[in-house]
Amino acid sequence: MKVGIVGLPNVGKSTLFNALAKASAEVANYPFCTIEPNIGIIPVPDKRLDPLMKIYGSEKTAPAYIEFIDIAGLVKGASKGEGLGNKFLSHIREVDAIAHVIRCFEDSNISHVDGTIDPVRDMETTNIELIFSDIEFIERRIDRTTKMLKSGEKKYKTELSLYERIKDGLERGIPVRNIAFDSEELPLVKQLPLLTAKPVIYVANISEDDISTIENNTGYIKLKEAAAMESSEVLAVCAKVEEEISKLEYNEKAEFLSLLNLEEPGLDRFIKASYNLLGLISFFTGNRKEVRAWTITRGTKAPQAAGKIHSDFERGFIRAEVITCDELVKYGSYAIAREKGLIRSEGKDYVIQEGDVVLFRFNV
User: What is the DSSP letter of 351?
Assistant: First the structure.
């Protein structure tokens, strides 16, 4: 599952990506510094892995992973090919969710493409370009479907009505993700490569001084209010500080976080928020070799979750033995948890929950 890091030029996208990937993506003070996307496969921070490793006596842990893509900066007119418009938009089509980085700090040494700092304006600039691109796509789909109506097939009339409703919403500035669809329409909408249908999280890139006084950053406050109008989350992160933290050793990192009065890096919060944005959860398996976090979509049933491990597990699924991670860690032993009747036997209709520790029984 892929998250695209997008935004205007010089807002801190590549700095944030460097912190994520501890990579060497070029960071410079001019537009289009990033042309081809930088890609990083990033582990999802999970404090539950180490306690589980001790319980199972495992040799190692294997976290869940999420893919981040640092995409070139967008400018006004991108939907008409300005800047790297067409390439930028094509890269966004390939991701599953969008992390929209917005600059919320002043710095005379870092230029802004519009000359001033205005987070809500920058948010709207990017969103409008994505909406324009979607309108262009849906108009082509309407033209094609209108021609197909002559065949007399009923499905084309239904599709045309849906496309026209999507176009109407877009023309009123409503992203597709905020248009209500019924259970029959949703599968069709999901097949359309619409940019504004993708879930989004806004990342407010703040200064180091704002970390402890974020409530005084008026740009951030206004951005939160604007994002709330479309039911989207805003996460405040200082990309520059996060890049510095990512280079520190474990002990140094803990000391630095303490100085900033932070319990965890903002980067960890960002990664976990992106994971949730994609509708993903983790379940765990454990043995003497390793404790592993497996990634599934929320709502996945036990046999399909077993199939993530091996297709034979799904094909020969018998049952799943399940306990919550919190319960297992509380008692410190799988054997003790079983004695207390905490290991549940679940069948093929059981929906795996976030944090489940699972042993699958199967026969092929």
Answer: B
pLDDT tens, residue by residue, 188-206:
999 999 999 999 999 999 9
265, 20 Cβ separation under 8 angstroms: no
Burial class (CB in 10 A: 0-12, 13-18, 19+), 176: buried
Structure tokens that stand for 20 in this block: 């994520």
| pLDDT of the residue at 83 | 42
Q: Which residues of 327-351 are buried (b: 16+ CB within 10 A; e: fewer)?
A: ebbebeebeebeeeebbeebeeebe
Buried b (16+ CB within 10 A) or exposed e, 234-272: bebbbbbbbbebbeeeeeeeeeebeeeebeebbbbbbbb
Q: What is the DSSP letter of 320?
A: E
Cβ–Cβ under 8 Å, residues 46 and 54: no
Q: How confident is the model at residue 76 (pLDDT cuts 50, 70, 90)?
A: low
Alpha-carbon span 224 to 211, nearest angstrom: 16
Query: How open is the CA angle 260-232-195, to the nearest 5 degrees?
Result: 120
CA angle 84, 85, 91 (to 5 degrees): 90
- DSSP letter assigned to residue 116: S
User: Cα(41)–Cα(174) distance, rounded to whole angstroms?
Assistant: 32
- Using CA atoms, how far residue 135 sits from 74, 79, 85, in Å, is 18, 10, 15
- Which strands, in side-by-side order, build the sheet including 38-43? 38-43, 65-70, 2-6, 97-103, 200-205, 233-237
Beta partners for 236? 204
Length of the chain: 364
Distance CA 234, CA 280 (A): 19
In whole angstroms, give the CA distance from residue 246 to residue 64. 19
Residue 204 backbone dihedrals phi, psi, to 5 degrees: -80, 110
Q: What is the pLDDT of residues 121-178, one digit of tens each?
A: 999 998 998 999 899 999 999 999 999 988 878 888 999 999 999 999 999 999 999 9
Say which amino acid occupies 195: L
